[in-house]
Amino acid sequence: MVTILFHDTIFGPIHSRRLGTSLGINLMPNDGKICSFDCLYCEAGFNAQGAGTTGVSRRREVADALRAKLQAMHNAGDRLDVITFSGNGEPTLCPDFPEIVDDVIALRDEFYPNVKISVLSNSTMIGKPEVVAALRKVDNNILKLDSAVESTMRAIDRPANPDFTVERVVEQLRQFSGECIIQTMMLRGTHCGVAIDNTTDDEIDALISAYRTINPREVMLYSLDRPTPESNLQRIERRELDAIADRMRRCGIKIQVN
Fold first, then answer.
1. What is the pLDDT of residues 104-143, one digit of tens each?
2. Contacts 24+ apart (CB under 8 A), 13-18
3. Is there a contact between 9 and 153 (Cβ–Cβ < 8 Å)?
4. What is the CA angle 164-44-155, rounded to 5?
5. Which of 1, 113, 119, 134 maximizes the CB count within 10 A of its CB?
6. Helices (DSSP H) in 84-157: which residue ranges?
7. Distance CA 146, CA 120 (A)
8. Per-residue model confidence as pLDDT tens digits over 49-81
């Protein structure tokens, strides 16, 4: 099984094809994975690998490690475009997430005031007011919607909570109208013999309808770039992504293709 874990709370900087030079913050364990999705394409592997032994990051640990890293980078004159919450699972599951966001903003302002703060989230925790309030504070609130068709979403993302539905998450995403960025992974393939494809006409029509309801700042449309735990998935090539994006743009949706 493909498993690429981040073994530090603060990692990088790395080059992100969507965000630029990015310093990562991993709030999940450094030797395992905790996530409310079990996506077929997750580079960190399936949740079955277990949560490891190091536990979820705590507020003081994150602040101390980030301060040390930013101080060293600042002293060395290193470039930085963005600080990104990502890593070995869903960052908003961390109990200290709202407070950590406040600390990261303060440290960013101290060392790199022009740098953006991004959160990559799977949207599963946006029913919690404290998570919503924290996400509203960051520059790039990037929330996942891989399909607006229930069966396809469940096949690709495999949410842990059976109450998580497309209808519910689209309604919850509306509260960020004009503020959030929606991230959609385009792919096709099979899993356990079942065909999966979120690039069909019906899928694109459903996504367009959902995007119109949500009214995001923009949509990030992308496809596979790294090995996946499900080996029977296919990357959607740039020409096809561009064609899908053009169809969405004709409906008034701002699209970034990566």
1. 999 999 999 999 999 999 999 999 999 999 999 999 999 9
2. 13/73, 13/78, 13/80, 16/82, 16/84, 17/222, 17/225, 17/258, 18/220, 18/222, 18/256, 18/258
3. no
4. 35
5. 119
6. 97-111, 129-137, 150-157
7. 13
8. 998 999 899 999 999 999 999 999 999 999 999
pLDDT at residue 2, rounded to an integer: 53
Q: CA-based Rg of the chain, rounded to a whole angstrom? A: 18
Q: Does residue 182 contact residue 226 with C-beta atoms inside 8 Å?
A: no
Nearest alpha-carbon partner for 197 in 238, 243, 232: 232
The pLDDT of residue 5 is: 74
Of 183, 206, 188, 201, residue with least CA distance to 258: 183
What is the pLDDT, as a whole number, of residue 174? 96
Structural tokens at position 123? 């949207």
10-15 CB contacts, 8 Å cutoff, 24+ apart: 10/62, 10/65, 10/66, 10/69, 11/87, 13/73, 13/78, 13/80
**Per-residue pLDDT reduced to its tens digit, 146-198:** 999 999 999 999 999 999 999 999 999 999 989 999 999 999 999 999 999 99
Give me 244's structure tokens: 């899908």
**Percent of the chain surpassing pLDDT 70:** 98
Contact 173, 143 (CB under 8 A): yes
Fill in the DSSP letter of residue 129: H
Contacts 24+ apart (CB under 8 A), 165-171: 166/210, 168/127, 169/123, 169/124, 169/126, 169/145, 170/145, 170/210, 170/213, 170/214, 171/213
